[in-house]
Amino acid sequence: MLATKLYGSMSERPNDTFLSALNIRRALDASLRRLQTDYIDLYQFHHVDRNTPWDEIWQAMDVAVQQGKIIYNGSSNFAGWHIGQAQEAARRRNFNGLVSEQSIYNLISRTVELEVIPAAQHYGLGLLPWSPLEGGLLGGVLKKSEQGGRRTEGRAKEALETHRDALQQYEDFADELGLAPGILALAWLLHQPAVTAPIVGPRIQEQLDDALKALDVELDAETLGRLDTIFPGHRTAPEDYAW
Asked: Is residue 52 scored above 90 in pLDDT?
């Protein structure tokens, strides 16, 4: 599957920016040229555009679908209510709307459980988590640091210190299970509602092979509960705030 994104501004003129119909047309044609393809399987909105009406956006996308330039639309970094807005506007036009949402989601960053995942489930969207290892923190960072294989600086170092206790518990638990921490983090995501596939960024074939091992990992309720204890989430969402 070939996927790419749209959002960046072409100029300071209002019709050349973000998700305007003109910018959609220009950005899509430019992507097709760069990718050397006739069509894109999944064309995603990188962010919500607060100034362009959804009717304009969906009209432009409808034209692109009819032209055979895209097959499906997805969103990225949308709030739950953004998904609702998009889908209801698409419904009024008898258009398919969004089929996926790409959000940051992992054992440490679980905010999407509050509203985004419930919205995705309600409207039938697949969730594509980015940063599934939270910038490497869930990939065995403590053990790698002890072995001299990873150095953290700046914001990464601050994040490591903030979550050090939980990360130590997590890595110890991964050892108990006989799993590499990174594989456990990916397997956990695959057990979460609405998740279609985490977005991994391997640099070498070995890293890709390791990531694919998560597909064969089955986590029972006790294991999932233990992970929720280490990294608490929002199990009563979307009414979490009321309990």
From this structure: yes
